[in-house]
Design goal:
58% helix; single chain; mainly alpha
């Protein structure tokens, strides 16, 4: 066995994965994917957001960063979103 006394379970898994025979990699991938939370898996495999920002978005971000203090109260935000 590869495990040493100081090795964590995750470290052992990493080592085991590195030693899976090529012929068994597809099966191991399928098994490991089934163990991952579906939402986590979707986040891990989601494409990067590469849509360019609009002029309005750039203006809004610049405005927000220029003055981190907001002149909108929490109560106003909650009211706006019906909370």
């Amino acid at each position: 066995m590869i495990k040493t006394e100081s090795m964590t379970s995750r470290e052992e898994l990493h080592k085991l994965v590195d030693h899976i025979p090529d012929a068994d990699v597809a099966a191991a991938r399928k098994i490991l994917r089934s163990l991952v939370d579906p939402v986590q898996f979707a986040l891990m495999t989601a494409p990067l957001d590469d849509e360019p920002e609009t002029g309005q978005e750039l203006t809004d971000v610049e405005k927000a960063l220029s003055d981190p203090r907001s002149d909108v109260s929490l109560e106003e935000v909650l009211r706006e979103y019906g909370l």
